[in-house]
Each structure stands twice: as C-alpha cells, then as structure tokens.
Write a structure and sequence with these properties.
Blueprint (H helix, E strand, L loop, with lengths): L1 E6 L2 E7 L1 E2 L14 E9 L4 H6 L5 H10 L7 E11 L5 H4 L1
Antiparallel strand pairs: 1-2, 3-4, 4-5
Length: 95
C-alpha cells in the first residue's frame, strides 16, 4: 500500500505504508470467496518473506516471524484492509 502526496506543479510523492497477505486459493484449489479484514504490516515486504510465503501456510508463518525478538515485521495498529474476494464462476452457487 502506498500513499500519494500531490502538490501544485510538483511531481507526486509516493511513500510505502505497508502490506498484507490474502491467500486466494484453499488447499484443494478453490477460491476462498468471502469478505476479509486483514492487518496491515509496516513498511515494505521483506524479500525473504516473499520467497518463503508460497512454501508455508501464510498466517502461522507470519505469526511465528513476529514472535521473534528481532522481527522486522510489525503491525500498523491503526490500519486494516477490507477485501471482498469472489470467484465469479461460483457466484451463482453463493447467492
């Protein structure tokens, strides 16, 4: 997530605010349709986390990283993201 600051006659300034994770597919390959409130983590996503997320269950993996004393992953306590995820091929089933 980024913030953008606009000023007259000046190039916009972009600033990294945070990031979050939403596993789109279930273990059996279906889209996990639903409405989610996701925590926002401070700063940019660490490269090692990006590499390891596909190999792990995301939320237990992130919680384990946050429990470490020297963890670089911290919540932005004043923010969250609301995301609605819907598989349009299954929309009729869900209505």
């Amino acid at each position: 997530m980024r913030s953008v600051t606009f000023k007259k006659k000046v190039i916009p300034v972009f600033k990294n605010i945070g990031w979050t994770v939403l596993p789109v597919f279930s273990s059996n390959g279906y889209v996990q349709s639903g409405i989610y409130q996701l925590p926002i983590f401070d700063g940019s996503v660490p490269k090692d986390v990006i590499e390891q997320l596909p190999l792990n269950d995301p939320w237990p993996f992130l919680m384990e990283l946050m429990e470490k004393k020297k963890s670089r992953i911290k919540y932005l306590k004043t923010m969250s993201a609301i995301v609605r995820l819907l598989d349009s091929q299954r929309e009729v089933i869900l209505l």
